[in-house]
Amino acid sequence: MIRLPRFTYVAARSIAEAVDHLAASPSETMLLAGGTDLVPNMKRRQQVPRVVVGLRGVPELRGLDASGALTLGTTTTLTEIVANDQLRAACPGLWQAALQVATPHLRNMATLGGNLCLDTRCTYYDQSQEWRQAINFCMKKDGNTCWVATSSPKCLAVSSTDTAPMLQALGASVRLASTRGLRTIDVADLFANDGMHYLTRQPDEILTDVIVPDQRGWRSAYWKLRRRGSFDFPVASAAVAARMGADHVVQDVRLVLGAVASRPLAIPRVTDLLTGHVLTDERIAEAADAAFPLAKPMDNTDYELVWRKKMIKPLVTYALRDLRGDDTRELRRRIARQLLA
Description:
By secondary structure, the chain is α+β, with helices and mostly antiparallel strands. The chain is built from 14 helices and twelve strands. It is 30% helix and 19% strand. Strands 4-5-8-6-7 form a five-stranded antiparallel beta sheet. Strands 9-10-11-12 form a four-stranded antiparallel beta sheet, with helices on both faces. α10 runs antiparallel to α11 and α11 packs antiparallel against α13.
């Protein structure tokens, strides 16, 4: 049995109370919502906060309003997102992303905010303390070397969140609270391409809400590559959202790749290629070709990195075919190992 380190637990009852506790010692305090990421990390001594502030008792952080612009509290569970028919109709891509996280048991506990802030992952980091000690640790925790690329000046751990690429493609924003007040930033600006310092959230800030613009006229889809049909983190993913005209011409489109860098990776070239055009097979192939060279997965997770990169083209192709209205159910079963019912 791997035991947790000693820590002080504080159950916050309001956002104001939570930010006060966090502000008292930001460098030694961490936030706990579902705990599906933080608790295993603490057991492996990857994260060892002196104080843990629980957020599940803060009512303002929970809830889902799908009328018009979509507003989600950050402690809303992934199960609650998946079970909401209004959200599924308005944002099918977000529903698909939430449904493909982990397993039903974990989604019952895991929260939207926790998945957004998911710790970056790496073969050399996600191990027991004894395993990491045997290689003299790594740059991300207690060491000086990134074992993925030993000459790298920064950590190359990979972003493995499912909801972040999709929310970025949807043009979503997040609200953050601190003792200084509230601020709102785009989801795209919440992340940095650094495996250690992957969030731009300040140490004394709490993610309170996610706001998705009104999705009327938009379509969205999320495709995820992993070894098994459940539980596993993505080793590559494609999130796409597009506003379509009555004549099926693309008026606007965003493509974001996941699990190929330390942050979700936007591909603006795809916007240029597809805007003003119908999603023909040729246009979809051009978009997939444009995404391919920008995806640069590293040898830090499951599967060979060359194959993971090669799979970017099919993933982008399938996601865009979804938007076009193709029946991709058999492809999902065969490639993504899941039927989204």
